[in-house]
Write a structure and sequence with these properties.
It is elongated and about 60 Å long. It is built from 6 helices and 7 strands; from the N terminus they run ββββαααβββααα. Helix 3 packs across helix 4 and helix 4 crosses helix 5. The chain has 2 domains: 62 residues, no CATH class; 107 residues, Metalloproteases ("zincins"), catalytic domain (Zincin-like). It is an alpha/beta fold and 190 residues long. The two termini are 23 Å apart.
């Protein structure tokens, strides 16, 4: 449920069977979020919001509604660019270096540039492999994007960060140490 509030903009209301008390937090988008018991009505959620305005203003760094909309627009534009670019670049490097994966997805996590997930197939001995790449990669130089893609592809053969893993990354990107250091100057969050 979403409540539109004049002061806080869109307030995300999450209903949860395990929650006993109403709690406030700030979502990754900078919006105010409320966790409420499962059967809380919109009326009660609004009433609690109104009763706690002063505390919310003082204690929670809620972004201005205009900032929220600007961030949403930026995220939408990055998602569009990422859809047009990242799957093809991933496929290019996978074919070039002989990697095989099953699924690809885009994310907008605040802390990770990408991930490679191995899941056991039901009734089989092989893993289903999903490569996830962050849309924030569209904000970094192409050499760093390529490094992240090669890094995630290397996780297909080495799910850890062992010496063998880094040797495989180094085989495809001779400057991976420099790229890794440079990437730390950017944030994956949008």
């Amino acid at each position: 449920m979403v409540i539109v509030d004049k002061e806080f903009g869109e307030v995300i209301v999450r209903k949860n069977a395990w929650v006993r008390n109403i709690r406030f937090s700030v979502s990754t988008s900078g919006r105010l979020a409320m966790s409420v018991p499962k059967y809380t009505s919109e009326f009660l959620a609004k009433r609690f919001l109104n009763a706690n305005r002063k505390m919310i203003r003082e204690k929670l760094p809620v972004k201005d509604p205009a900032e929220q909309r600007a961030r949403d627009y930026q995220k939408k534009q990055l998602m569009k660019k990422a859809r047009e670019y990242l799957p093809y670049r991933l496929e290019y490097f996978a074919r070039l270096h002989g990697y095989k994966y099953d699924n690809f997805r885009l994310s907008h996590a605040n802390t990770r540039w990408g991930s490679c997930t191995h899941r056991k197939r039901t009734g089989g001995n092989t893993d289903e492999i999903t490569i996830s790449l962050n849309i924030g990669l569209m904000n970094v130089p192409e050499t760093l994007r390529d490094y992240v893609i090669l890094h995630e592809l290397a996780h297909i053969n080495h799910p850890d960060h062992s010496k063998d893993f880094w040797a495989e990354v180094g085989k495809h990107d001779h400057n991976y140490k420099l790229h890794e250091r440079r990437l730390k100057g950017f944030s994956p969050g949008v």
